């Protein structure tokens, strides 16, 4: 199953860090306005739709960002149907184009809990979104969770709430999500930032041909604490065991959503992401960020991507593994802010 997880894009990141966010507005060039307060409605300020296991998480940074998760109605399936989609909305809106943060395979917006407050402090309008089929949305009606559905859901969320070209950030398999979206909806994306991108896997491969009973058994294993803990150890460039245990609980929090298993199997048997043929179609300026000690996606693949993208450059982050936006958030946020705010390339 470990190899299966790798074929799906990358191993699921165990949870990530964060910084305390206070409700405030900074004055940005062009003015600001408050667009949300992130108040929770459940116990201890957590949204009532989060799994009860959120109470067991010790990391104060994860708890802070979890309290800010909201659900917004988003149209799906080119119909009149809507689902309540989970995300973290910005506290301020600026005149500059916003930054939209995706996440890795089988993860959630909590992946950004350590970098997100720093992005806000830098004056950026940042949205942290849950890709359809993962995260904390209400998928009780279980819409299709294939690539086309994920793409259309992201477009409808952008069209309904963001409405401006964005700097789209995708880590690991999220880079494939970002490329697929940018090629299909170029009007929605100003620039791309790809972090340790996993874009050369040809979908889920033979996993798409598994009998449903076998697929469900494999997905059940993907949820287990030992596998997630092992993924944690691979993803990070050395963290204390006590922190790894708690971060594992954060990383698998969305797996407690009642629809998670069905949605993950649906994605797996649909064939997954295969964006190899789309890479040279990307028109947006692209920044590739690589952790120097990534044990999951080879830096050689990042170099290949650098040369295949029409307009791209690369920056390396020392002393970090597969998730530099977690391990070295200050460094990554500076790279994002500089790239988002610069007209030069």
Feature tags:
about 350 residues; single chain; globular; two-stranded antiparallel ribbon; 8-stranded mixed sheet
Helix content: 25-40%
Strands ordered across the widest β-sheet: 2-3-6-5-7-8-9-10
Average of the residue pLDDT scores: 86
Identify the overall geometry: globular
Distance between the termini: 41 Å
Order of helices and strands: HEHEEEEHEHEHEHHHHEHEHH
Total helices: the number is: 12
- Please compute the radius of gyration using only Cα atoms: 18 Å
Q: Give the amount of beta strand, in percent.
A: 5-15%
Largest sheet: 8 strands, mixed
Runs with pLDDT <50, length 5+? 1-40
SS-based structural class?
alpha/beta
* Beta strands, count: 10
Explain the overall architecture.
The structure is a single chain. By secondary structure, this protein is of the alpha/beta class. The chain is 34% helix and 15% strand. The chain is built from twelve helices and ten strands. The strands form two sheets. An eight-stranded mixed β-sheet has the order 2-3-6-5-7-8-9-10, with helices on both faces. It has a two-stranded antiparallel ribbon with strand order 1-4. It starts with a helix and ends with a helix.
């Amino acid at each position: 199953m470990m190899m299966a997880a790798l074929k799906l894009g990358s191993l699921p990141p165990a949870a990530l860090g964060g910084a305390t966010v206070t409700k405030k507005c900074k004055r940005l060039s062009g003015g600001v306005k408050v667009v949300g307060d992130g108040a929770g409605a459940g116990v201890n300020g957590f949204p009532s739709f989060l799994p009860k296991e959120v109470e067991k998480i010790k990391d104060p940074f994860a708890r802070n960002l979890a309290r800010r998760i909201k659900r917004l109605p988003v149209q799906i399936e080119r119909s009149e149907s809507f689902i309540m989609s989970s995300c973290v909305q910005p506290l301020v809106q600026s005149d500059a184009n916003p930054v939209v943060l995706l996440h890795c395979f089988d993860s959630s917006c909590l992946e950004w809990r350590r970098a997100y407050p720093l992005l806000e402090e830098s004056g950026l309008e940042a949205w942290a979104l849950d890709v359809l089929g993962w995260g904390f949305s209400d998928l009780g009606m279980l819409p299709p969770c294939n690539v086309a559905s994920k793409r259309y859901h992201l477009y409808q969320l952008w069209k309904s709430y963001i409405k401006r070209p964005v700097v789209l950030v995708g880590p690991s398999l999220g880079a494939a999500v970002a490329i697929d979206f940018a090629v299909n909806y170029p009007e929605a994306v100003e620039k791309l930032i790809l972090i340790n991108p996993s874009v050369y896997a040809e979908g889920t491969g033979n996993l798409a041909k598994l009998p449903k009973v076998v697929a469900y058994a494999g997905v059940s294993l993907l949820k287990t604490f030992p596998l997630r803990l092992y993924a944690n150890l691979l993803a990070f460039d050395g963290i204390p065991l006590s922190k790894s245990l708690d971060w594992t609980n954060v990383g698998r929090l969305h797996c407690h959503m009642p629809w998670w298993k069905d949605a993950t199997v649906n994605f797996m048997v649909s064939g997954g992401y295969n964006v190899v043929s789309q890479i040279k179609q990307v028109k947006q300026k692209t920044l590739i960020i690589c952790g120097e000690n990534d044990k999951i996606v080879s830096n050689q693949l990042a170099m290949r991507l650098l040369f295949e993208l029409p307009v791209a450059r690369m920056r390396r982050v020392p002393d970090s593994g597969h998730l530099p936006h977690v391990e070295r958030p200050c460094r990554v946020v500076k790279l994002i802010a500089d790239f988002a705010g610069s007209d030069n390339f």
